[in-house]
Design brief:
Length: 171
Amino acid sequence: LTTLHQNVLNSSKELGQLRMNLNTIKDNSTRKIQTIQRDNFWSVNPRSNRQPIKKFFTDLSSTNKPLASLVKSRIPSFQKKEEILDLMAEYQVPLMRAMWFMKINAVHMSSISKKRHTYSVPAEWTKAITDYLKDNLSKFAERGQDYGKNTLSTGNKAYTETCAAKNRWNY
C-alpha cells in the first residue's frame, strides 16, 4: 500500500513538473529594449505652432498608428497637466493610449526636473485628474441650469463652454 502511494505521489510530481515546463513560454527572441531620447521631446508654450500638436494628438487618437512609431516622432511636452487632459478630451484619445502619453510625459518631466520630488507621480496625476473633473463638473453644473432652461443660444459663448465642458466630462 505504501509503495502504491509512493508511486502515485512520484507520478503526480512528474506530471506537475511536465505541466510547468509545457506552460512556460520561452522567449528566444532578443528584442531590443526601446529607449526614449530626450531629443524626441519638445516643450510646448502658448506661442508654439499648434499644427505639430494637432498632428501628434491625431496620431495618438488613431489606433492605426502604433505607439512605437509615436515614440520615434517628436513628442510634445506640457508644463500643465490640465492642458494635456484638455487635448486628450478634444481628440478623444483612447484610454490606454492616453495613459501611455501621461506616463511618457511624467517620465520626461521627472528626468528634466532639477529638484527631487518627495511625492509620487501617480498621486500627482490622480490629484490633477480629480481637480480637472471637479472643475469641469462645476462648469457644467453652473451653466447646466441655463442650458436646461433653453436660455442659451447656439452662438452664445456660455453655450459653447457648456458644450465643451459636457464633452470633456463625457470623455
